[in-house]
Amino acid sequence: MLDVLGAPQARELAEEVGDAYRAAFGAAPNNEGPEQFVHQQASYVTLLGRRGFRLATARREGRLVGFAYGALLLPDTRWWDGMLEPLDTEFTAETGQRTFALIDMGVVPDERGRGVGRAVHDAVLAGCPARRATLAVEPRLESNQRLYRSWGWRCAGRLTGAPGDIADAYDIYVRDLPMAMP
Question: For residue 18, how many other CB atoms are within 10 A of its CB?
Fold first, then answer.
């Protein structure tokens, strides 16, 4: 079962999403640990207060097996700061409605290869009121990058990770979205 939720409902699922995140990202190829799990929970709570927050969930027999969430980039975002090859200011200018940042997407290991990732990906982006979406992927995660490219994402460049980030660098992907109907 797929659901797309806004911040009020997503707030109630913070612990369950955190558990699914630990299962998904603690396994290969990410192999994240306790420090990253704490970062995810803090980031999730912060994102709940952001405009345009969306959470897509997939359940099988009541169990959360996949998720995708993000929010709109604010006009004062630092998302594009630190690109190794600077992008045109027209490309990076944000209005608060132009770009949806897909922050995390994961599938628990025993459900991978069944279309759950694609389903939550498509659900969180469907009807999104932004013109485009963006996401960040660690360069070492080549299989994830191949997957995103096969779903229509294109790499805009590489970004240097900030102190305290999970990675030293990220490849930033973008994808145009169909305009939501008024």
Answer: 17
